[in-house]
## 1
Amino acid sequence: MTATEALIAPGGRALPSRRERHGPSLWFAAPALLLFLAFALIPLGGVVVLSFMEWDGLGTPSWTGLDNWGRVFADPVVMNAFWLTALLTVGSWLVQAPLSLLLGVFMAGRQRYRAVLSVLFFLPQLFSAAAIAIVFKSLLDPNFGIGQDLSFLDLDWLGRPDLALGVVLVVIAWSFIPFHSLLYQAGVRQIPPSLYEAATIDGAGRIAQFVHITLPQLKYTIITSSTLMIVGSLTYFDLVFVLTGGGPGYATRILPLDMYLRGFRSYDMGGASVVAVILVVVGLGIALSLNRLSGTGRMESQMEGA
Amino acid sequence: MSTSALNGRPNVIGGLLGWLWLTIVLLPIYFIVVTSLRPREDFYHERPLSLPSRPTLDAYATVIGNDFGRYIGNSLIVTVSTVAVTLLVALGAAFVVVRNRSRWSARVFRLFLLGIAIPIQATIIPVYYLIVQLGLYDTLWALVLPSIAFAIPLSVLILSNFLRDIPSELFESMTVDGAGELRILWSLVIPMTKPALVTVGVYNALSVWNGFLFPLVLTQSAETRVLPLSLWSYQGEFTMNVPAVLAAVVLSALPIFAAYIVGRRQLVSGLTAGFGK
């Protein structure tokens, strides 16, 4: 029986022997496929189409060819958004990766106090990005915020263009490190204890063990977590939107924010679609190259390691 | 296995880092709680990190008196229906991916894999167009349908990884006994994949419950407002009442906090679904 026949003649009357060979009818996958196509995959194609059209969000879209692309690439705001996104991506990784790794190793310890601390470390994860942004906005308020109590923090954090991006970076770290340290905790717990026992017998100290056993053994966790961090940096929207709205000025207007503001505030859906296409291409490119960097696919590698 | 347990010395640097991070984690949370318990007038002259001199639940009463119940209700409807439908259709798809031997099932699977890499943001403009064309703008359907679509890929991936571990013999013996595919799905697949269903359900529930972009773009009125968006609008509404805004933050996190206390293991495994393997 060919695949097309399977599609046309779903399960129903098939003989048991056939069913054994082919398993359930493809119709079981139809609802998922339909929903996924309609609201995820077709919109993904749609954004490419819309990037060649002019649309204000209300009327009917009309073709404009490459106009949007030319306009967007000539726009200094977009170039600035590119730069900020790159800065945020690199900065986030530099802050989050080492801290998550160290915290993950810490949380993997079996001491009682570490277990208790790990439970508390998870707390930021319980808040939505919108909630976190609102909290930090009032916490960093120059008049009524934490600066009133801790004078070394008494600055207009969100009002100064030179500080705002740094604040965004710290708030992102605060909300995402719990997740990444969990990945590392799981990774560390999978390292065979015999490796450490052998190293201890050989007289290796704690730092030597960390460098020569823990780090190499965590290779795939590092790649997975870094991929998520880097690709994630391209998609921070809600947190930055509520925290700074892209300001002051254009100081924190990263690409996803630029896309939203361009489309839904300036009613330039065509230009916004260009930015969206760039986001998809850059995101996929980074994910694929990191995957290649890791040699074989992530799934296989982890199974080999286990 | 921790290194310190092996070589006996306490790990001073590790401990220091742990306690320092705890301070960083708890400080903003402490700030939320004490501020939400402050009377509105006191917020402007009491020290931000001091305990409230006249603690009160006024801020909470203000929030609850301002339609908070409706927003929680909307969030519940959207989350529960998204998760229920996603689990149902993703399980069907995973069943096909693992048990159907035709070329098509492999193609379907690759299509879903592609979906994992699609950033939601990038498709928001066409999704908006589609929802407007369907006449669903500013309804809860506008949130449920795209949320399901974006939850499907990862759900199918995790469920099919799990389904693969069910021994073939179990399927075969049921087939020999004359069970149809629906029977097999109901009395073999669902019971065997229960832990994965919980994990996937929790993961999807968290991301829908906290989702901000779809509600921001696809709804407008207070009737369809969900929790994360309500926090944002409270912030605009109560510019002079910071304790109320932070009380809303506390209230919005309470359901998840309760879930964390009751089912920490499930919540954590749900959160790292598919990555923490």
## 2
Amino acid sequence: MQARRLKTAVAIAAVAALAVGAAGCAESERGDSGEAKTGGTFIFAGAGDPKNFDPIFNDDGESFRPVRQMFDTLVSHKPGTAELQGGLAESWEHDPEGKVWTFKLRQGVKFHDGTPFNAAAVCFNFDRWYNMKGAAAQSQMIYYMDVFGGFAKNENEAAGKPVYNKCEAQGDGTAVVTLNQYKGAFPGAFALTSLSIASPEALKKYDANTVKQNGDSFEYSAFATTNPVGTGPFTFGGWDKAKNEITLNRNPDYFGEKAKVDKMIIKIIKDESTRKQELRAGTVQGIDFPAPADRKALEGEGFQVVNRPAFNVLYLGLNQKNPKLKDLRVRQAIAYALNRQQLVQTKGPGGAKVADEFLPDTVLGYAPDVQKYEYNPEKAKQLLKDAGAEGLTLNFYYPPDVTRPYMPNPQEIFTVLANDLQAVGIKVNGVPRPWNGGFKDDVQQFGKQDLHILGWTGDYNDPGNFVGTFFGRAKTEFGDQSMTEMFDAITKADGTVDDAGKKAAWEQVNRDIAAKWLPAVPLWHAPPAIVVTKDVKGLVASPLTDERFNSVSISK
Amino acid sequence: MLRVIVRRLLQLVVTLIALSALIFIWLRNLPGGPVEALLGERATPERRVLLTKALGYDQPILVQYGKFMQRVVTGDFGNSIRTGDPVTEVISRAFPATIELALAAMIIAVGLGVPLGYLAARWRGRWPDNLTIAGTLLGISIPIFFLGYLLKDVFTQNIHWFPPSGRLTTGLDNTNVTGFFVLDGLLTREFDASADALWHLILPAITLATIPLAVIVRITRASVLDVLNEDYVRTAEAKGLRHRTIRGRHILRNALLPVVTTIGLQTGALLSGAVLTEKVYNWGGIGTLITDSISGGRDYPVLQAIILLAALVFVVVNLLVDLSYAFIDPRVRVR
Amino acid sequence: MSDPITQAGTPAPRPGDDKPRPGMSERSIGLLGDRKKARLDELAQASAADRGGISLVRDAMRRLKRNPVAIVGGVIVGLFVLVAIFAPLIAPHDPVQRFDELTKGLTVDTIPGASSGFPLGSDPLGRDFLSRMIYGARQTLFVGVLATLIGLALGVLIGAIAGAFGGWVDVVLMRLTDVMLALPSLLLAITLVAMASRSSQWTVIFAVAIVSVPIFARLLRGSMLAQRESDHVLAARALGVKERNIVLRHMLPNSLTAVIVQATLTFAVAILDAAALSFLGLGDPDINRAEWGLMLGVDGQRYFEVRPELAYFPALAIIVVALGFTLLGEAMREAIDPKNRR
């Protein structure tokens, strides 16, 4: 009996497959399987696997995409900008020293598990981070370390002095966070997705603090893998790893704008050309990071290609370990030798702009009047001659195998830049190294290169997040341990609490970097894009890739 | 016979241990690695130290290997660096996908290859023969990733007959039982899922089948030609046996012998081809896993487990083909 | 993917053809390996059977000239080699120079097509695509020849040592090649590239070469073994010629025909494998180098919709050349097969 049923089933399936294949009635098939879709499932193709869903243990965009739908932060960003606005906290203020931060919290908010969001929950989260135990767990808290320096008990001497002091709940509605010192990162850092507020009950119940070290890898808790609980517009549905689908369900009790669709599926498709093909086939309604070469074609076919405002920078690093590059004239010669306008025109993704500074012009501290290095090969040759650096040979490191939002195609960028440099008589020795196979190690840890290309996507609206990250202290990447003048100026600017003073200090830093220090040459700001079908309404692209899909609806 | 199997198995264990040591040590001496992959642009010297220590990469390599082997004995191959999933889980998820694809490709290659080869032999020197031979030559000369790209472009982008990638339509609700989606649909009576999975399978299977198909056609052709000249076939013809009987009993049965071997031999080529095919069609199998764990995140635990698994599969298939060979042709004794 | 091509066109093995040959390792890895081995051994013996090397070659040449397959293959290969050698004379431009005429109209999503002076238009970086295609023949030949030569050299070394000495040396070396022969070729190449500390044109060449080492080794060894007991070697030994000289002067040259045939077939595989590696992102990282596999695997894929010619032309070139080498190789194999002699 069983066998016969199976046989019949095989026959039916075979016939069905034949019918689908031969008649090409793909449309009906799609309609059958995706009935819920037109009723309100938004399928969006992401570019990689998330690590897990516990905000604090994550630091990359692919993990943040689902996390941002499920969690909220105290401070959030105005949709489509890097400007701050209220999140879980309606308002916030700080004392003149910038050490005591008082958050007035939104009332009546509930976590997905029904437990109330209040000041105690906020402090529970801050204390959880600060008191995190275990080397494995601490080593995963990249953003926490970045902002708060260290832990109650550092498991490793490499961690620093903690910036966080304590958090006090004053009633349900007010949380007061006290810091040991002010940093320029605040209050922007409170909007970091990593610092999202999770349900204390769920954190306890699903053992969130346990990151098990298993040999040469980590194992995450049930909270991080199967039971993330936040306050966001979507609740967690599941991650089917055989199908590469993350399912999120609408949270009907969301405090803000409730999700328009019933369900959102994040489909992970690593290959950019396959993402585009799926979009065309109609199996997904949106894709992230289309190949720059495809944007125009997609637009022509009626898709909405939305450029995110550029919040990144690509630069050419100059390593002053090479004595020739220690000479400012040689560094300037390189800047003059590069035809950045042509680079942007021929290889820049749509909307890319030549960069004159290491931060986008929307960030505070951007100086409109820095020294610009217009393409001038003659001047470059002259400067090289003056510096006695004619016939210079430089090792140029680049990662051939990676695509970053600010660097869609490193091989081509390298080839173009090398060409420009060779035109002024600098001999370039290209050294390709795989992105995860030694490029960053060679460049940032060992400083083997003379030149290299690398970049950065900003995390929050603060000049320190750009300029401070690059040049705030001695780094092997730029080979110089003695540019103390620059380090001091940046530290001082970062420590300035009042807005006017902060702005002035950073503008001066940027002017000096361009004219006096030139540790690297900024190349371009390149906006990453997001593409959706014309039926998708309400998508707001964020410069920080901080898209919340509750505003998205599908019209049919 | 039993002794042979036991000896082979012992050899297998020794080989695998040696191979695992080699791979483990070699991988960890490469530049870059998981720490670099995990930190991305956000690496600072402090974070490097922290993560390196947390992962245990600061310990002597032999100590690391010892710990690794200790866990392997208990069946624990560690966790994926990226997602923290147990490696065994990651691989057992990808494995059915590759097997499903390879099986489908083999079915196409054999189902089409043997009849074509037979026809070519029967029509030797005439146009069907020439056409087939030309086709097989083209089949082995075309880079299969390019063929896959072309097929995908034509059949999914220009005419929307097939889906461009993946194993199932996104959002389709199916029950995962064995990981073989076509089979799962049948088992759970979710026939729409089966049909959908088959529909996704067609293009990748055709792409992957080209090379084995070409090879099987040629082997069958040559083999049938040889058998046709054998005395017993001529005798049978002279005896006036029915054509069908000759074809079935005498020609095909004898000609099939080398074909069976070739099928076994093609598993290697099939695995090679699967890496390319899976990348073209975003097929979540072992091939994708390999390329991802190399260039994606230097996922050493996954990578070393796959290499060991590949070695294991190959030797086992090897053994099975030996046995089947002995089964079909009693004159051959497994040494 | 080297398996299929070397496999294709094999004289069909007959039942009972599988009896162990003299000196063949008894503990072979199994019939799967044996089948490949048997095929190679057959080829090895074909060339060794006739001891008069010159007459064999002349005989084979005569048959080749009459075979249209060989002629087509020969013409393709000949043209390819000519283009490769004379690339600087044929190509209108420097393949790595960027031209203002081309970069002017170049953006990330438009690549200028044919214009005066640039019959095939631009490549993604404003270089002359035609010149790159022409120089591509040279680079492709370079990669193919080097990969084949390295594989050949290592294989010949191993095979010659095994064949010349026999005994335990033979057993150990052949056991090693058996294992290598058993691995899926592209997977082996991928693993090798992944395990190389840095990728370059040389890792690609080397990875592709290693794949063919066991094939050549087994071929050489078979041929040597077949000759060890042959009349001319026995005669030389009786005359007191040193063992080393026997190997170098008498045995090696006689094995060469078979090796050349195999090398021709290996070349086709080498360029296909190199292209596959590029496609997987594990190929030569230097895109300045015009090599067809690299052009197809990188630019062809990335700009397929912007300008499909960037994929079509290199792909076509690879297919035609691979086809040429396969045709020629198979015709040669047929020509030296004693079964076809009359």
## 3
Amino acid sequence: MKLFEFQAKELFSTVGIPVERHVLCDSISSLVAAYKERSNPQAVIKAQVKTGGRGKAGGIRSVKSLEEVESFGKSIFSLSIKGFPVKSVLLSDLVSIQQEIYLSLTIDRNKKSVLLIASSSGGVDIEDLAKNNPAAIVKQPIDILVGVPDFLARNIAAQLTDGPQQAKQISAIIQSLYSLLMETDASLLEINPLVVTTTGEVIALDGKVVLDDNALYRHPQYAKYRLEETLTGLEQEARDRKLSYVQLEGDIGCMVNGAGLAMTTMDLIKLYGGLPANFLDIGGSSSPEKVIDAMRILLSDKKIKAILINIFGGITRCDDVAKGLIEALSVVKTELPIVIRLTGTNEKEAVELLTNAGMTVFQSMNEATQEVVRKAYQNKQLNEKL
Amino acid sequence: MSILINKETRVIVQGITGRDGGFHTQKMVAYGTKVVGGVSPGKGGLSIEGVPVFNSVKEAFLVTEANTSVIFVPARFAADAIMEAADAGIKLIVCITEGIPTLDVIRAYRYVQLKGSKLLGPNCPGLMTPGESLVGILPANIFKEGRIGVVSRSGTLTYEVVYLLSQQGMGQSTAVGIGGDPVSGIYFLDTLEAFERDSGTDAVVLIGEIGGDAEENAADFIKEKMTKPVVAFIAGRTAPKGKQMGHAGAIVGSGEGTADDKIAYLERAGVSVAKQPSEIPELLRSRLRS
């Protein structure tokens, strides 16, 4: 679960990582009110969206008068940055920057450890920096059984800045960030930039946090962040029904058991000239309820022209799956063509059951995919004619 | 021959009194796996599917001389179960449980490393040496004894591929499901290395997916160290960036992890990459002929 900048800063503050003074505003009127409270006319408005590139998109503006706040504020609130509409902004103090540093803690999948990444040339995208100036990046695996000892924090901080006073502050920030990682079960904590101001302070000016969904049971206090997540309506409904669903642009709906097979099904639809409308993993059970829930979600996506159900019966036998499908499809009725593909344990019995129930069923994934693409396309032509 | 498990493998089941643990114990016993004990704290003395239940892994280990454990306990307790197994002296720990917090996995993995054991998973279907031993939840009936090694990040996709192979008469030496989490124990490299050494394996099928760079690392290893042919399939060419596709580890990050990049990288390393699973048997056949 990704957090907004203001939420990241909330978390940073809990472990004493300094952030600039800021106010969260969710409307132009609250922005104007917050600005009027300020003694210093110079300020910055920052759009709150869970994506990078805000600055380029016009989502960050510095202001020095009420007129500017009103006009820039209005334009920022009307923005949609990479598909994310701006629903709130931060009104922050303007910070005069002497140096920008990059600092993050993340998971290294290969080394199977926590990884600290830092650079004295922060303020830019770390991927760009890795490409253009890899030598400027410090990578330090952190042993989870030890944490970040003082010497390590000190040595890393010394590579990031020249000022001894600032290095001391950064060293403390590194250790605070690590304890925040442990406390929150985050899989990413990023401060970019961590700035040294012209007056020598060290401040986290922007932050990115990704929390581990699997650890949320330990942190009921973060449930509020989940409510603000950017899911489509259908994705939210699928989550409520414990289905793994991602909405895509295409017009062929698919329902599959298993994540790898579900991705493969999407890929095959594309390979045979169609476009998948979704990723949907219904998991391993043959329960009709799961299929009914899944069908309802697929059918609420009005783009869909045809549906492919692709099941590999392993432990769950195909004939059980077939019975579940027949029951589910008698509950959820649709005019859309449905192509079923079932393979695995007891597939013969399953094919017989489904064929007797009047359904098109295939044993080969390729044939089923070709069929669903053909049907979707015919249907589309038909619809276009009508 | 095989890798990681064979007919001598002595298995205990952690979480044997749970629904999944009990169900799959029955399947493993029926297949002929030497399931020598189960663990469920507070339920020692019971017997499940004819398998004696112990209160702790230590106790089970001392009585049964198990060398392998398979874990079905719920996510909240699974990292602890992994560490308990390592502490008791279990050499291969197979964790089926899905949804363990990543930092817990890192801590448990580190502990397993310290104790000199190996971890497979979490969030994996386990592994299988056809005709000898099944440790996990793989559907045994689709497998066939043979000389193809299979290693995969996915469950049902593996079964799909194994099924195709078996239908074409291409049995498997060992099939290993390494799991779909961002951090897992045994991975492509360890498995490929073992298949390369295994005299019972002629060729390997590698099934990868979007996210991370494990396939790229595997490609480097294959290019430098492997003499046996490798055929790969990568799922997720149509997956959008930044969205998690079911598996916690299946997400295309910025600048890394796309299926197309992985495919290109593998092909450059001399791996034959199938466009669809149904091409895998033929690709294997042609690689084995040449």
